[in-house]
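Per your request, structure below.
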């Protein structure tokens, strides 16, 4: 449940960075818990699950990508990655593992706060008044059912299959626009995602993850299909547009 003061865990092995980010978050209405690595994060997480985690990817004892992988296997808490390298590889791998956003170090603290608020709105905020979603709040996606109110993906036996916030937002966008070709840029807008420098790759990674969960044969997708040079289309019956 979201608290009156959002609880943010900041994981970074550099004390000066942890303290600076923590102080700034307190000034802007957040309740930070500062962790120097994966072990401290797990100990704090066991006591209280946060609303969001800000995680440095480059740490000496346990790298951030391993921590993201472990977190996403057992929790839906959103993660914003901090990456100090110019390489896009860490960002791509992190997104593929389920991270919700990233920001380069050294980061502008105002931008970090804006990203935190954006991710919290996407993952915890109520649907806006007048939202024009599908009347049917449970939508069939291939081998699964998407519960729009519960924000969960279930199979025919009722077993839940984990979704990241970005994956849910993409599925919701498709559910609201069936049989319509949606460009990557349009999907970025509809899903309230943020990858202006590499959104093509980020969207493709998320679509690949989604296909593994919903397609009868992910190698030959029929539910969410690629339209060459245009984007993607959701075919509820798996038979094309």
């Amino acid at each position: 449940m979201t608290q009156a003061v959002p609880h943010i865990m900041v994981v970074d092995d550099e004390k000066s960075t942890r303290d600076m980010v923590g102080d700034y978050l307190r000034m802007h209405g957040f309740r930070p818990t500062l962790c120097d690595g994966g072990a401290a994060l797990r100990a704090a997480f066991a006591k209280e699950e946060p609303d969001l985690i800000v995680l440095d990817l480059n740490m000496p004892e346990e790298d951030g990508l391993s921590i993201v992988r472990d977190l996403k296997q057992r929790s839906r808490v959103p993660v914003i990655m901090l990456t100090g390298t110019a390489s896009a590889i860490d960002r791509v791998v992190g997104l593929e593992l389920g991270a919700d956003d990233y920001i380069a170090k050294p980061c502008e603290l105002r931008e970090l706060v804006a990203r935190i608020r954006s991710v919290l709105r996407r993952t915890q905020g109520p649907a806006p008044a007048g939202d024009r979603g599908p009347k049917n709040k449970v939508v069939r996606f291939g081998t699964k059912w998407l519960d729009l109110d519960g924000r969960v993906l279930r199979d025919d036996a009722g077993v839940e299959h984990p979704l990241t916030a970005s994956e849910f937002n993409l599925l919701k966008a498709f559910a609201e626009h069936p049989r319509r070709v949606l460009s990557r840029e349009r999907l970025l807008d509809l899903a309230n995602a943020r990858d202006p420098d590499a959104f093509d790759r980020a969207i493709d990674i998320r679509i690949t993850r989604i296909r593994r969960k919903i397609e009868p044969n992910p190698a030959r997708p029929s539910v969410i299909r690629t339209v060459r040079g245009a984007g993607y289309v959701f075919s509820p019956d798996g038979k094309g547009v």
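The radius of gyration is 18 Å.

Regards,
D.
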